[in-house]
Description:
Mean pLDDT: 88
CATH architecture of the domain at 367-441: 2-Layer Sandwich
Distance between the termini: 34 Å
Low-confidence stretches: 160-165, 451-459
Helix content: 25-40%
Shape: globular
Amino acid sequence: MSFYTAICSNFLFPLHERIKGHDSVALRKRLEESQWWPAEQLETYRIRRLQQFLVDIGQRVPYYQQLFKQLDFNPNRVRSLAELQQLPLLTKSDIRANVENLKATGHGPLTRYNTGGSSGEPLIFYMGKRRKSHDVAAKWRATRWWGVDIGDTELVVWGSPMELGTQDHVRRLRDALMRSHLLPAFEMSPQNLDRFVEAIRVTRPTMLFGYPSSLSLIAQHARHNGIALNNLGIKVAFVTSEKLYDEQRVIIGEVFGAPVVNGYGARDAGFIAHQCPVGSLHISAEDIIVETVRPDGSPAAGGEAGEIVVTHMATADFPFVRYRTGDMGVLGNAPCACGRSLPVLKEVQGRTTDFVVARDGTIMHGLALIYTVRDLPGVERFKIEQISLDQTIVKVVAGPAFGAAEEARIIRDFKARLGEAVDVRVERVDTIANEASGKFRYVVSYVKAFGINKEVSGA
């Protein structure tokens, strides 16, 4: 650890958090102890904390006061994590319809947030200081697994235009002191890619953090132009908020000369899981309970894929209890060789919008279609939009090598998977924009599947 990093980690950042009324420093130290507890001790702690959390919201949150009364649910009797399943799943529609009733009586300062949602209808929710402190502590613990601390130079490829517009003078000063640099992920023009590559080369960050689609695009641009970035001393590239595809992991790792580390979370659900040096995606279990459920809401079996459902126990001021994330995943049941007792999220398969539905009702991951388009000559960028069971549009930014034969191949392969009667259209476009959040999705389906309305699943 450099002298400047030590000053930031042990003095400047703790002072910053204390001024903001956050407990992240003490929480991070506590998390670094609890991750090594025996599994039985961690389970006992989580049950006790869940009971306290449910008692609290049952007393202070109008929505749960009424719900617990209707269900005759007594949180004081909770003796296992499984008893959480007595409560209904919480959807984005539930939150939209009950925003004020989800605020706890006597809550502290709340900050308003929203997610975009692929339908354009935002999810508005609120976050208190306790939730923010726990999220900061969880991320901080994970970066330290990889030898990176606050004050080490960080380059972040992130953010919507709205988020970037909120970079006031105080925040810019804080980021400068902490040596954190922000690049706008939604501005991926060739000119800006030149600028981003140069920023990385000059900054020589210890850590990269961003969307896998954005970091892989920067890496591809650097490789295409023969610019070496694997000699800068980058220790780790953290990716999150999108599915990390194998080819993205390879090119990011090769170009930047660093391990590519997956993180899973969302603005609404929190920092849920982070990858350890052994490779397991560990759940931040001290704060978060993760379930996977089938389309009918019943628990998925061990090794079975299901929708990820999250209960965040640091959200009493605006509770998230059994919240449907719209993501698909598989829970692990084997301990990790790293020695941490934190449970493992074995696999995150992507958002429900990353899945497509054939005309006969078969549900398949978008990878079944992605590979066809990705491997064709002349395809520079693409996006697959399943409009309905009867129509799918493939937008392609095409180079000279992409011709009629390649277009016919897409139509033939897609019909073979989706159904011969499906109208598959290939549209050649000049550019394909990222979403307003800065993310990029190769597949977006508006067809209902997994028991939820996919077109309103945000991130």
